[in-house]
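hey
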């Protein structure tokens, strides 16, 4: 029997401290594709949509894809943008009533009018399709999962990797559970256990540290009878909302007491290891001093600015690290991205080869990561900012950064872009004429995702905190709505208050 399955992707990670609201144009700039027409372009990519397509083929679904809407992490989603995208999904559900629904979501969307964007979307969907049609969703490992999301979605599967390299797999897993639910073989529901913390100690990184063991235990538990998926979400810290923090979810059927007890053991471990931070977060001065002393033998020193990560909603225009590196006089180095559309516009008024002086970066909010710096450099490359990724996360995907320029200032090739995207893929340098493998120092903006493409070429990797909007010093962020006590703002508390 061919089931009608409604699919849609609505992805946003909202940094509620960002002054940049996320309107419809932010989705249009990133990814906003309506209907089935452009599904082919997702075939085989590491995306939720590709996982939906895998299921459609495997289970012979009649798949109706309402929309793929994805904006880069930024401030509150506007009411108009939320309603427009939600209505595309609701209209599709009305015109072609589905047997099941599969939605790749992020799970940390906050709208102007509502803290729980995904809960609201699911509520509106349930109002159309009723309580009985099975709904499956996938979530980012950095989801802040609400009680409502678990009540309204029967099936939840989160990514299990950070760097995230299993988006397609997560959707395929959720779709396979959905198929069994549509066949009437199972009646899944999802339970949630929560930790009173802003986030897991290491942001959920899965390459090293305690998440590896937790995920192994979760995989083993998925082999228990009537257990279909176990998800461990690290939470997303840069969100001033009530239901923030790490969660453990078990999608199961039947009596939940046993499964809840298992989820509690994982949550306990997240709580017990709340102080076990794996990264050393250097100041920009310390990072620059390490760069100045670095002698390259078989690869570059990679310096990641954790705090100015556009992937966490930071502006990407922090100047603190660049300024410190310029002062040390490092040579044969590159830095990127510097997100500054005004500077990119300015540079595009000139020609390749010209030397110009301009104010760079620091324009959005100098309190976080430093104000503009005046630099003089030669324009090496002007570009429309398009390239095709070739790394583990973005391989085969078209990437775009708006007007882009490579400006050579003293010893540093600076990648100036217009759209705020973190450094995921070597092509983000290479596509614009910078070969990171040949550099002595590669400074980039990303917390953890850069490791997938850049660790293999690195001689050494260090992480610094420039004081930008994703600073690890959370006391600097003006939280008002998170429930108190909460760790680490209230360090003396216990897990239960
Ligand atoms: Zn994430």
């Amino acid at each position: 029997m061919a089931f009608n399955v409604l699919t849609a992707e609505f992805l946003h990670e909202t940094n509620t401290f960002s002054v940049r609201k996320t309107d419809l144009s932010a989705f249009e700039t990133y990814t906003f594709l309506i209907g089935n027409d452009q599904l082919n372009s997702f075939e085989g990519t590491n995306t939720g949509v590709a996982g939906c397509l895998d299921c459609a083929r495997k289970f012979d679904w009649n798949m109706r894809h309402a929309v793929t809407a994805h904006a880069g992490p930024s401030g509150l989603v506007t009411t108009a943008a939320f309603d427009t995208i939600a209505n595309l999904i609701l209209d599709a559900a009305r015109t072609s009533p589905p047997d099941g629904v599969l939605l790749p979501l992020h799970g940390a969307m906050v709208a102007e009018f509502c803290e729980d964007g995904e809960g609201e979307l699911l509520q509106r969907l349930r109002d159309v399709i009723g309580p009985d049609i099975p709904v499956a969703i996938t979530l980012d490992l950095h989801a802040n999962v609400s009680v409502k999301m678990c009540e309204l979605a029967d099936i939840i599967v989160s990514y299990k990797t950070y760097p995230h390299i299993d988006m397609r797999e997560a959707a395929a897993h959720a779709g396979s559970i959905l198929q069994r639910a549509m066949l009437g073989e199972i009646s899944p529901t999802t339970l949630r256990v929560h930790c009173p913390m802003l986030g897991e100690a290491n942001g959920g990184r899965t390459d090293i540290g305690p998440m590896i063991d937790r995920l192994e235990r979760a995989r083993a538990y998925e082999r228990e009878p009537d257990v279909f998926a176990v998800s461990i979400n690290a939470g997303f810290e840069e969100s001033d909302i009530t239901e923030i923090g790490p969660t453990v979810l078990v999608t199961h059927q039947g009596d939940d007491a046993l499964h809840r007890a298992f989820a509690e053991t994982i949550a306990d471990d997240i709580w017990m290891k709340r102080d076990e931070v794996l990264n050393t977060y250097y100041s920009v001065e310390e990072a620059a001093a390490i760069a100045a002393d670095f002698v390259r033998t078989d690869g570059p020193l990679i310096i990641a600015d954790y705090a100015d990560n556009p992937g966490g909603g930071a502006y990407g225009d922090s100047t603190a690290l660049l300024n410190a590196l310029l002062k040390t006089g490092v040579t044969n180095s590159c830095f990127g991205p510097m997100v500054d559309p005004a500077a990119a516009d300015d540079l595009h008024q000139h020609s390749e080869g010209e030397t110009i002086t301009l104010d760079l970066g620091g324009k959005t909010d100098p309190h976080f990561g430093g104000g503009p710096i005046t630099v003089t450099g030669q324009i090496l490359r002007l570009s429309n900012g398009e390239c095709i990724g070739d790394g583990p996360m973005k391989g085969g995907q078209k990437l775009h950064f708006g007007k882009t320029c490579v400006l050579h200032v003293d010893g540093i090739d600076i990648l100036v872009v217009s759209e705020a995207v973190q450094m995921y893929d070597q092509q983000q340098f290479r596509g614009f004429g910078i070969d990171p493998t040949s550099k002595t120092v590669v400074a980039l903006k990303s917390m953890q995702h850069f490791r997938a493409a850049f660790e293999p070429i690195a001689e050494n990797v260090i992480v610094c905190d420039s004081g930008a909007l994703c600073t690890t010093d959370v006391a600097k962020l003006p939280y008002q709505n998170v429930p108190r006590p909460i760790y680490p703002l209230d360090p003396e508390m216990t897990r239960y208050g």
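The mean pLDDT is 96. The chain has 13 helices and 20 strands.
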